[in-house]
């Protein structure tokens, strides 16, 4: 469909504290490594750029790349942004720990929602279906699945609205739902009963 820490910042004179022979202590390729270390703390503009870039990665579900970006942004001087970056980096860690599949489009989200429905993880399934509908508002199968989720969550009014829309988009969904065992315990309850009545061939 979620700890403030102190902000790490390098001393402003960090470069001056390095021994003169520091370059000789670098690993192979140390020239590049040394440049990264010297610029490890981003300024405000770089922090903002890193944060915005990480947000885009997060939205694209590149959680590993987003985590790295947020961790870098958390080192910048803008306190509120650094705090938000740490929180979002933690969210990335949680997503990575769950090992959720990469969902690139509405159909990916629908297919994953079906897996969650079969596991009776209704709220998570509904969250993915909402995202799928935002990408594909004409998907009758998305409304059908959303109706099922809302039934099992006890929101029969919301389920009725979703099913009505599913039937408007594809009238055969009325017949399918009547014979669907997942809906069997709900179609006799109002307001679904009015929608699924035997004399109804389409929504009013």
Helices, strands, pairings?
Elements: H1 30-38, H2 44-59, H3 63-73, H4 79-98, H5 106-118, H6 122-135, H7 140-152, H8 156-169, H9 172-178, H10 192-196
Helix pairs in contact: 2-3, 2-4, 3-4, 5-6, 6-7, 7-8
Task: Supply the key terms.
204 residues, mainly alpha, disordered N terminus, 2 domains, Serine Threonine Protein Phosphatase 5, Tetratricopeptide repeat
**Mean pLDDT rating:** 78
Sequence stretches where pLDDT stays below 50 over 5 or more residues? 1-39
Reported by name, the CATH topology of the largest domain is: Serine Threonine Protein Phosphatase 5, Tetratricopeptide repeat
End-to-end span in angstroms?
32 Å
Instruction: Give me the count of strands.
Output: 0
Strand content: under 5%
How would you name the oligomeric state of the polypeptide chains in this document?
single chain
Could you give a short account of the major beta sheet?
none
CATH architecture of the largest domain: Alpha Horseshoe
């Amino acid at each position: 469909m979620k700890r403030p820490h102190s902000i790490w910042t390098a001393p402003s004179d960090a470069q001056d504290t390095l021994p003169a022979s520091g370059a000789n202590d670098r690993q192979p390729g140390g020239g590049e490594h040394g440049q990264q270390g010297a610029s490890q703390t981003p300024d405000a503009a770089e922090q903002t750029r890193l944060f915005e870039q990480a947000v885009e990665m997060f939205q694209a579900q590149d959680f590993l790349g987003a985590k790295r970006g947020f961790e870098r942004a958390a080192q910048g001087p803008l306190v509120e942004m650094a705090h938000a970056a740490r929180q979002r980096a933690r969210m990335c860690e949680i997503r990575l720990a769950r090992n959720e599949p990469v969902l690139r489009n509405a159909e990916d989200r629908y297919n994953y929602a079906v897996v969650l429905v079969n596991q009776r993880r209704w709220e998570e399934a509904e969250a993915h279906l909402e995202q799928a509908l935002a990408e594909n508002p004409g998907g009758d199968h998305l409304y059908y699945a959303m109706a099922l989720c809302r039934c099992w969550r006890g929101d029969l009014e919301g389920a009725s609205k979703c099913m009505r829309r599913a039937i408007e988009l594809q009238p055969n969904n009325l017949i399918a739902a009547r014979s669907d065992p997942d809906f069997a315990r709900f179609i006799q309850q109002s307001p679904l009963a009015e929608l699924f009545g035997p004399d109804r061939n389409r929504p009013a």
